Amino acid sequence: MARQQLIQFFQSTGLMSAAQAADIAAGFAPRQLARHEDLLRAGRISDEYFFLDSGIVRAFALDAAGQEVTTGLYAGGQVALEVSSFFNRTPSPETLQALTDCQGWSITYAQLNGLFHARPEFREFGRSLLVRELMRLKTRLLGLAIDSAAVRYEALRQASPELLQRVPLKYLASYLGVTDSSLSRLRAAAAKGAAEAS
Amino acid sequence: MARQQLIQFFQSTGLMSAAQAADIAAGFAPRQLARHEDLLRAGRISDEYFFLDSGIVRAFALDAAGQEVTTGLYAGGQVALEVSSFFNRTPSPETLQALTDCQGWSITYAQLNGLFHARPEFREFGRSLLVRELMRLKTRLLGLAIDSAAVRYEALRQASPELLQRVPLKYLASYLGVTDSSLSRLRAAAAKGAAEAS
DNA sequence: TTGATTTCTTGCCATTTGGCAAGGGCCGGA
DNA sequence: TCCGGCCCTTGCCAAATGGCAAGAAATCAA
């Protein structure tokens, strides 16, 4: 129940003191999600800024054929949010869904704006988060453009090994931009390579 | 020389009045770029928020093999900016280069922050720009993940036909995530399809 | 203008990835 | 316990894309 991780998150950019972080964190309410529960449905307007303590949230959109495409995977310590819907008050193009039971902290748009108004240092933090998210997307984009599927898989394994264990292969596949059978083959090849290396 | 386009840009989100937009635009200085001139070099910290009136700016990074990869293309009416470097005051991972002679308006980080401080409506505008940029990246990411190269090419043709005419094929190719010979073939196939349709 | 450079196209073939379908294993509910 | 439904793997072949290199075409600079 403690807001430890949330407070630490606010301090992570070095833009505020421990006391400030604790004050801001006090404005957040505890929030649970059951496995398979939706945090946000496509078409709705997001009104919940959700920081994830533990568990995994998946974001997905539908392609032209109506197939789900995983666009984001969030684990503990991250904010699971459809940024454009939340900040622009527009219908979300994606659904956010709990892949496992989740615990975290949330705050509404009005409350967040109140904090932004009252606390310039938190405003700075918010901007820096947006910028960080932008960099992450850029990095993923570059990877999709220039790396082979095998390299992208390996990069994800390095960056977030826990996701590979806990997220069903079909979701990982569309997140990486490959089909599930291709990913299965990649995984087999990687395992073979690792075995030979030992 | 008129700041018309800049003023219109500020008003485009509906977050401020004409008078406010004109006031803010007055803080920007005219800025020219000669063809092939760098607006920002990789490794440097960006200190110029640059709005493009006319011309084309290309952003590129280097891949592991030292090859240039085009990560962004900006035409008139857009802001050509490496967001993370400018806002986080960190070395830029990319170079921004004028593909043609360019005219526009620019402002420094300190000046921009001054405006953000003095004018809450401009702060809102800045946030909404970041969010918009994020959505654009998400859309490109989704396209790379699920669409074929032919579809991506067609989408770019629909969205920004002027780029296809004025940007060398090799830059378009890496922007679209294909090799230049593949793009050349795609273009040939598209032309053939169009001819048959007529 | 003229020569040099860049840009674009195209052929040939290799590699990567997709599509489809069958089958095995695992897990949860009745 | 047993059944039904995911989840994952794998074989076969097709389609998409890349790599390389040669040459034509356009562009640039002197």
TrEMBL record, chains A, B:
Give the matching PROSITE patterns. CNMP_BINDING_3
CDD domains the UniProt entry points to = CAP_ED
Ranges where the Cyclic nucleotide-binding domain occurs: 16-133
Q: What is this protein called?
A: Crp/Fnr family transcriptional regulator
Species assigned in the record: Hymenobacter persicinus
